[in-house]
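Progress report, Aim 2. The chain analyzed during this reporting quarter is listed below.
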Amino acid sequence: MKRFMNPRIMLILSMTVFGTLGLFVRNISVSSGELALYRAILAALLIAVFLFVTKQKIPFKEIKKEIPLLLLSGVAMGFNWILLFEAYKYTTVSVATLSYYFAPVIVTAACPVLFREKMTAKQWLCFFMSTLGIVLITGIGDISAQSNHLLGILFGLGAACFYAAVILLNKFIKGVEGIHRTFLQFLAAILVLIPYVGCTSGVTLSGLNHTGWVCLLIVGFVHTGVTYCLYFSSLKELPGQKAAILSYIDPLVAVLVSVLILGESMTIMQVTGGFLILGFTLWNEWNGWNGWNGWNEVTPEKETEVKEC
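Predicted structure tokens for the chain:
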């Protein structure tokens, strides 16, 4: 891909596309579990074609020890999607996305426990200020805050927890290249989502209208399949810090889509909370740990990714 497009443009394009995800999800009238399943299937098919065309083979014999972690991270990825889609249903796209971007804060807080990494004063400050941002977004103290809005934020935070789990699990996966890893995680997600959907909503594709079908195909092929390929291809050429900074285009676009296209309002308090979350997580990444790449779609740990892709 780098022969046809500058890697910085590829990353900017992929982040912009990711930021419009909520706009399309809103028009797909299936359950969150179903949507997660169809998204994984469509994206896996497209990436399989990409791997075939580019003649990239997955070295299964060499990664046998990594398969349990890949399966576990794929399961976490599937439920991460489900909770994010649920968040879109109960609150605004902007608030759901900003709640979801609490994931790097969770990763920062978990690393001292899991990897015995010491948190610096800067990291503690970023942790507390980002947490304050979440408090402001919830509208605590605002008597007009609705229960559905709070439920949407909880779903967003739940999705952030699963996303953080995937990032942390990927710190242990060393021998699988980025796009191969994502493809295998898609397959794992499919395996766990099939019985989940069967036991919950079942298949309801017959109820989709023309707009719903178009949006579903766009979410599966474009937002996941094509954009993942653009994303991983760009990582081969860009320094980790530059990629992390450009990834913040995603939530900014999501907020603009929410306010300007969907007509969803944000209070001054929520805007302030959004600035606290994005600003302090970005500052935490500046010359800091590269484990979080700032993306709302699940990806491997940055430092390994840049070396392997």
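The chain has a mean pLDDT of 80. Residues 210-235 form the longest helix (26 residues). These observations will guide the mutagenesis work planned for the next reporting period.
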